[in-house]
TrEMBL record, chain A:
Protein name: Phosphate import ATP-binding protein PstB
One MF annotation (Gene Ontology) recorded for this entry: ATP hydrolysis activity
SUPFAM superfamilies per the UniProt record, alphabetical: P-loop containing nucleoside triphosphate hydrolases
Species: Prolixibacter bellariivorans
Gene Ontology CC terms, in alphabetical order: membrane
Domain of life: Bacteria
InterPro entries found in the cross-reference section: AAA+_ATPase, ABC_transporter-like_ATP-bd, ABC_transporter-like_CS, P-loop_NTPase, PstB-like
Keyword annotations: ATP-binding, Nucleotide-binding, Phosphate transport, Transport
UniProtKB/TrEMBL annotation, chain B:
Membrane-protein topology: Multi-pass membrane protein
Any one biological process term the GO annotation gives: phosphate ion transmembrane transport
Localization, UniProt: Cell membrane
Protein name, entry field: Phosphate transport system permease protein PstA
Molecular function in Gene Ontology: phosphate transmembrane transporter activity
Domain of life: Bacteria
Biological source species: Prolixibacter bellariivorans
Keyword Transport: yes
Length: 261, 294
């Protein structure tokens, strides 16, 4: 069924025949998914609720292992290194993640939130390194000019959109290979959404971005490649333009034209 | 055409409203009245005894009190042995109860619905209902008889720590439940190991809630008398040795009550104890109002 997959040369991520069930012997939430993710591009994962898109995303940095009975089959290679053979600490430094709701640490200042990954893992930084990471990460998310005066105030005083960009900065602080975003704009207003989308387009110059979205027009606006998932299966994976103009599978067409979803 | 007029009964409704409001205010005043009367009575009867030496000197013996009374003077001495004893016992109880309570609370929060954690939660609830004098008896058997071989501050602290435990456990669990799960996810996604997530994300984020729980449990045990009678006994002098009998403010109140020459001291000691507990309560309210998340 995966004959539609676009050929990706030198992929960052290569998901190979991945299946995930939340219980041993239970229903598969993700079924036999094989995908190569293109470097320095935005890949969107679309599909109706419960299709397994979030599970697939979380499998990439092994967040799905938080569920105690999870069963994972198959392989994910990050730059030819097996994700499931790596320590999660190392893996999650290489693959950053941003969530649906902005979740800055309420006890930390804006600056400390940016370097939270270092702080919480007990990695010591020199003052100059700290300042440099904070500034470049905040500049990368176009937040620097807005918060440079208030770096040592609590991050929770920012607006929702600013908090979400702060969370992206926190993910960028480790200079990851891949950034995973799980519906990052669904809790934001349209203006803040537009800013985050612009930012993602800017970031893809240097980072590989995998984005789960409910919002088809968002996928059409900013993604280069798109996957369509349905009931745990990867139905179609193609260039976003091709998928939206000329979907090969009737289920994709049905979803994109609003027949279900 | 028949004209229907709408009867204007707003006056009658307003009157009813006002009567009802009056009744509500009257009954709520009635509920707070005892508190006002208690505080008022303590202040009126006790304030005359409170001076610097009340805090710095130990309790008088009955002869001193009798002489002072016969001469129409205020009773000399203070309750310094009780204050220091209470501080020692309560501090030690907190040191014992806080780590156990918080760790258990974190465990209950981390494993909801598991049979073992439900069991622990139920036991903690039962523990809260155990009469304090029974705890005193048990600790008497455990600590006084077998560990310190005499009445001791340590024994008192253990009994009070057991009383604090269920309060701290439940308040820790409830506080942690209020933290959004997304915060934990954020830390997990940064590759932070489990123990550091608890120590450096969950506990700091819920710090004010934990502190409130601790202060409330301390104010709850400050006035405990029964278990202390069986465990610390009392001491006419200031004592800082946790293996020796020690006094405490509530024990002194009981002692004064039983000595006809020192009855006057009940009021000042009670005023002090009440003031201390009220202050702790007010502080914990302030903290939880100031630092509540969201």
């Amino acid at each position: 069924m995966n004959e539609n997959i676009t050929e990706v040369k030198n992929p960052v991520l290569s998901i190979q025949d991945l299946s995930i069930a939340y219980d041993k012997g239970g229903k598969y939430a993700v079924k036999n998914v094989s995908v190569d993710v293109k470097r320095d591009a935005i890949t969107a994962i679309m599909g109706p609720s419960g299709c397994g898109k979030s599970t697939l995303l979380r499998a990439i940095n092994r967040m799905h292992e938080l569920y105690p009975n999870i069963v994972t089959e198959g392989k994910i290679m990050l730059n030819d290194e097996d994700v499931y053979g790596m320590s999660t600490i190392k893996l999650r430094r290489k693959i950053g993640m941003v969530f649906q709701r902005p979740n800055p640490f309420p006890t930390m200042s804006i600056a400390d939130n940016v370097i939270a990954g270092y702080k919480l893992n007990g990695i010591r930084l020199k003052k100059s390194e700290k300042e440099e990471i904070v500034e470049t990460s905040l500049r990368d998310v176009a937040l620097w000019d807005e918060v440079r005066e208030s770096l040592f105030k609590k991050g929770t005083f920012l607006s929702g959109g600013q908090q979400q960009r702060l969370c992206i900065a926190r993910a960028l602080a480790f200079k990851p290979d891949v950034i995973l975003l799980d519906e990052p704009t669904s809790a934001l207003d349209p203006v803040a959404t537009a800013r985050v989308e612009d930012l993602l387009v800017e970031l893809k110059k240097n980072y590989t971005i995998v984005l789960v979205t409910h919002n088809m027009s968002q996928a059409a606006r900013i993604s280069d490649n798109a996957m369509f998932m349905y009931l745990g299966e990867l139905v179609e994976y193609d260039k976003t333009k091709t998928m939206f103009t000329n979907p090969k599978d009737p289920r994709t067409e049905g979803y994109l034209t609003g027949k279900f979803g | 055409m028949k004209v229907t007029t709408i009867r204007d009964n707003s006056n009658a409704r307003n009157t009813k409203n006002n009567i009802f409001l009056g009744v509500v205010i009257f009954f709520s005043l009635l509920t707070v009245l005892p508190i006002i009367l208690i505080v008022g009575e303590l202040v009126v009867k006790g304030i005359g005894q409170i001076n610097l030496s009340f805090f710095t000197e130990i309790a008088p013996d009955t002869l001193q009190a009798m002489v002072a009374k016969a001469n129409g003077e205020t009773i000399p001495g203070g309750i310094a042995n009780g204050i220091t004893g209470s501080l020692l016992i309560v501090a030690l109880a907190a040191v014992i109860a806080i780590p156990f309570g918080i760790i258990t609370g974190v465990y209950l929060y981390e494993t909801p619905g598991k049979r073992y954690s439900n069991l622990i939660r139920d036991i903690a609830d039962v523990l809260q209902g155990v009469p304090s004098i029974v705890l005193g008896l048990i600790v008497y058997l455990w600590v006084v008889k077998h560990i310190t071989h005499s009445y001791s501050a340590l024994a008192g602290s253990v009994s009070l720590a057991i009383m604090m435990l269920p309060l701290i456990i439940r308040s820790t669990e409830e506080t942690l439940k209020m933290i959004p799960g997304t915060l934990k996810e954020a830390a997990v996604a940064l590759g932070v190991p489990y123990h550091k997530i608890i120590l450096r994300v969950l506990i700091p984020s819920s710090f004010s809630g934990l502190l409130t729980g601790i202060l409330i449990s301390i104010s709850r045990i400050l006035g405990e008398t029964a278990p202390l009678m069986l465990t610390t006994l009392g001491n006419p002098r200031i004592n800082w040795d946790i293996t020796h009998p020690t006094s405490a403010v509530p024990l002194l109140i009981w002692q004064f009550y039983n000595d006809p020459n020192m009855v006057e001291l009940i009021w000042s000691s009670s005023l002090f104890l009440m003031g201390f507990v009220l202050t702790l309560n007010i502080i914990s309210k302030r903290i939880s109002a100031k630092h509540s998340i969201n």
